[in-house]
Write a structure and sequence with these properties.
The complex is a heterodimer. Chain A contains six helices and no strands. Chain A is mainly α. Classes of the chains: A mainly alpha, B mainly alpha.
Chain lengths: 172, 370
């Protein structure tokens, strides 16, 4: 019976994720798309919980919903005339889009089928936080540091973009 | 809950319509009870808010309904329910209706991770504190949604201010909590509280562990005031500039949901402060009592709620005393005052733990005299 409830909740999250992702793509109002992303992110976080990745799920909500989505909303709302943006701009884009989607789908499907997955049986919810921390400080220290350098560069870039131009005083 | 589901499954086969109906009604009843309790707290909260406000400003406050105005919140609640549900014609209808529910649901979802007493824990999450931080960041989405969907300049400005403020102040909050996490090495709310027990009474509380954590508490409390939009930082709803900010266009119970969400958040941030810095449900006298476990847990619940309500009282006190900051002052406060100090505290706590091998001030003093 645990299994049935487990499945029901899993499919609820799956429907939430896919359904809201469909709204993101098809909605004609770009603000609605942005808000629908909230449910997509949230659904993905729920799926992480099913993979016993509790820390990752909370991070997903904290970073994507609390940070990135808010930034997206800021950007969308500060864009003028949001309602006039045409998402379907004629049939001219349908064909290239279909080709692009087909290629990506083929690529992903091939990778999914060909990868030798390590199958782990049913696993109880275990604390993952400490393990993630240890791995980040030992095996994956370099990628971790590189990521922080990238973020630092982005910060410096943002500051440069918004700083006031200070002109040197003119010398006669 | 799980027990009830198990019973239902044993009684009927699982997928029979009756059991599903019973299950849904059970969830409905539990939800109603929880909501009623929440509404009681929020109603009494508004009463306290107005009474304390009256006290501080040398007024009387509500005193007509019931003894000393104690039933005022019932009258207000009935009024909110009976009011016409106005949805202005030019609003973005779907988002306008959805926004209060997202805000309210996010503030309710935070309650499951708290540890109310030794045994009374709704969900014993391993990542409790992190979950609380994550789920309370959902509130801001509802606020932006309300601000945008209202299609009004005041609401939009309020929503934008709220977003900027809440996103900024989340950073000092997270960093100031980290210095406690360094000491406890756990994110589980119950374990954080248990690590503050010991023979030295309130001196075992983390706030007295070392000077850096002491500063962290004040950074957290200041940033938390801004996170829940309380007065020195209530820019999103300044009545003198923005009418009511992001919920200007809301009326009746939809407004009520925003209001309740705000009170829920006030409780959550106070409870986090109590859990991390002030010993949670522990009080030295109660810890040593030799009584039945249920009675002990009940007392602990009382201690936890008492400490939390004291902090809420402090918030209301500040709310009715201090004038409001300007927008640029709020940003200055966050990024140039609180943030550097929070970093300083993390490094300081780390060094302290390294030098004194994880011992707090009380333990060091004992060592000195023995």
């Amino acid at each position: 019976m645990e299994g049935i409830i487990y499945k029901i909740v899993f499919y609820l999250f799956a429907v939430l994720t896919v359904g809201s992702a469909l709204v993101v793509v098809t909605s004609r109002n770009i603000v609605h798309s942005a808000f629908a992303l909230l449910f997509t992110f949230f659904g993905v976080a729920g799926l992480y919980v099913f993979l016993s990745a509790d820390f990752l799920a909370a991070t997903q909500v904290l970073i994507y919903v609390g940070g990135i989505l808010v930034l997206i909303l800021f950007g969308v709302m500060l864009t003028r005339k949001v309602f006039d943006v045409k998402i379907f701009s004629g049939a001219g884009q349908v064909f290239p889009a279909a080709v692009g989607v087909a290629v990506i789908f083929f690529l992903l499907a091939t990778v999914i089928v060909k990868t030798p997955w390590h199958l782990v049986g049913e696993r109880a919810m275990e604390p993952t936080t400490a393990e993630i921390g240890k791995l980040l400080m030992t095996d994956f220290l370099l990628p971790f540091e590189v990521a922080s350098v990238v973020l630092l560069a982005a910060l410096v870039g943002a500051v440069i973009l918004i700083r006031k131009e200070v002109r040197p005083p003119k010398v006669d | 809950m799980q027990f009830a589901i198990q019973w239902l499954v044993d009684k009927f086969s699982f997928l029979s319509p009756i059991s599903i109906l019973l299950l849904i009604s059970l969830m409905f009843i539990v939800g109603t009870v929880v909501l009623l309790l929440a509404m009681l707290y929020e109603g009494l909260g508004t009463y306290a808010l107005r009474k304390i406000g009256g006290d501080i400003q040398v007024r009387i406050g509500p005193n007509r309904v019931g003894p000393v105005g104690l039933l005022q919140f019932l009258a207000d609640g009935v009024k909110l329910f009976l009011k016409e549900d106005i949805v202005p014609t030019v609003v973005d209808k779907k988002l306008f209706i959805l926004a209060p529910f997202i805000t309210f649901a996010a503030s309710c979802a935070a309650f499951v991770a708290l540890s109310y007493s030794d045994r009374l824990v709704i969900s014993n999450l391993n990542i409790g504190l992190f979950y609380l931080l994550a789920i309370s960041s959902l509130v801001v989405i509802g606020v932006i949604m309300a601000g945008w969907a209202s299609n009004s300049k005041w609401s939009l400005l309020g929503g934008m201010r709220a977003a900027a403020q809440i996103v900024s102040y989340e950073i000092p909050i997270g960093l100031s909590l980290l210095s406690v996490i360094l000491i406890t090495q756990s994110l589980n709310m119950g374990e954080i509280i248990r690590s503050q027990s010991g023979g030295w009474g309130i001196l075992n509380w983390h706030i007295f562990h070392n000077p850096f954590v002491f500063i962290s508490f004040f950074i957290y409390f200041t940033a938390a005031l801004a996170e829940v939009n309380q007065t020195p930082f209530d820019l999103p709803e300044t009545e003198s500039e923005l009418v009511a900010g992001y919920f200007t266009e809301y009326s009746g119970m939809r407004f009520g949901f925003f209001f309740m969400a705000e009170w829920g958040e006030i409780f959550i941030v106070s409870a986090i402060a109590v859990t991390l810095f002030l010993g949670g449900w522990q009080l030295p006298i109660i810890n040593n009592l030799d009584i039945h476990i249920y009675l002990k847990n009940l007392l602990q619940l009382g201690v936890f709620l008492g400490k939390t309500f004291l902090l809420i009282y402090l918030m209301l006190w500040i709310r009715w005393t201090l004038p409001r900051l300007r927008v640029d002052q709020i940003m200055y406060m966050c990024w140039k005052v609180l943030l550097p100090f929070a970093f300083f505290n993390i490094i300081g706590t780390g060094l302290w733990l390294l030098i004194f091998k994880g011992k707090g001030i009380p333990e060091l003093v004992i060592q000195l005299f023995s």
